[in-house]
Specification:
298 residues; two-stranded antiparallel ribbon; seven-stranded mixed beta sheet; alpha/beta; Arc Repressor Mutant, subunit A; D-Maltodextrin-Binding Protein, domain 2
């Protein structure tokens, strides 16, 4: 039995997806199935159960015990690899990072490129999700780091602030407010709004700020993805409040009007979260340090 087999099994348990486990390990879905069957045959125990008619996986009692033991083995192996790298003075290995779309698509790419240039033996495995899933994956050990907006301190998590970015108003160029140099919250009264979905922290912050200024807007649509929100605004569905870095290209091209919001509370905090009971690898620490440097330049 190889260490890769244990990793495939743990990835399958943590993602609950054969396709994602296969993608993470650069194998086919059938190879993942074969590895699981091989483990079950070796130990003569059923480790996973699939719900009929539904694409769900459940661990058996034996599978739960095997998963916990496998995680311990993988963590020990990771510490061994890290010790060997430190002795040789190299920074290498894979840093698994989960992030929200608005940060991952528009703020992380230059950081990842710089990191890969500095540490060519290291690799960043980047995936995009919503905040609740990012935090869940960090706590569950599926990823090493999470990069989210409005990070919240909670038990089991360390939070590293990275500074922040401004939220801005966006609309079609012909919208009446598009000609303004700056806007106050009160100027948004009665506007047709394309929102993030309610459980997304940027949406919660927007709602909180509007309530604090006694501003009521008309909700016309809700999406979980920054790119979908921008496209909806482009076609005239309504206006939106989004992070400024996410609309720099549309502003340059003239696809969208982007107007600053003047109140100080329109600042969006961004941070890194990771498990407090797990030491970061050298590569992960270096990536966090680079994120902090980039955050301080913003």
């Amino acid at each position: 039995m190889q260490i890769e087999t244990l990793k495939i099994f743990c990835d399958l348990v943590e993602t609950r997806s054969f396709s994602q486990a296969a993608e993470r390990n650069f194998v086919t879905q059938s190879a993942v199935s074969q590895q699981v069957r091989g483990l079950e045959g070796r130990f003569k125990r059923r480790l996973l159960e699939r719900v009929r008619g539904r694409r769900e996986l459940h661990l058996t009692q034996e599978g739960e015990a095997f998963y916990e033991a496998s995680r311990e083995v993988l963590q020990a192996y990771g510490r061994l690899e890290e010790s060997m790298r430190q002795l040789s003075g190299t920074v290498g290995g894979t840093v698994r990072v989960a992030t929200v779309y608005s940060v991952g698509l528009h703020e992380l790419p230059p950081v990842v490129r710089e990191f890969m240039g500095l540490y060519p033996r290291a690799k960043i495995d980047l995936e995009y999700s919503r905040t609740t899933r990012v935090v869940r994956d960090v706590l569950g050990g599926a990823v090493d780091l999470g990069v989210v907006a409005y990070p919240e301190k909670r038990r089991g998590l360390e939070v590293v602030p990275l500074g922040g970015d401004r939220l801005v108003f966006i609309s079609r160029p012909e919208h009446p407010l598009a000609r303004r140099k700056k806007l106050r919250a009160a100027d948004l009264q009665g506007q047709n709004f394309v929102h993030f979905e309610r459980d997304i922290p940027t949406r919660r912050a927007t709602d909180r700020i509007l309530r604090a200024h006694n501003v009521a807007v008309q909700r016309v649509a809700e999406f979980d993805n920054i790119e979908t929100i921008k496209r909806a605004v482009e076609v005239g569905l309504g206006v939106a409040v989004v992070p400024r870095p996410s609309v720099l290209d549309e502003r340059r091209s003239g696809q969208l009007a982007v107007v600053p919001l003047v109140e100080p509370e329109w600042e969006r905090a961004v941070g890194v979260v990771y498990r407090s009971d797990r030491a970061l690898s050298t590569a992960a620490r270096k990536f966090v340090e680079l994120l902090q440097r980039h955050g301080s330049r913003a």
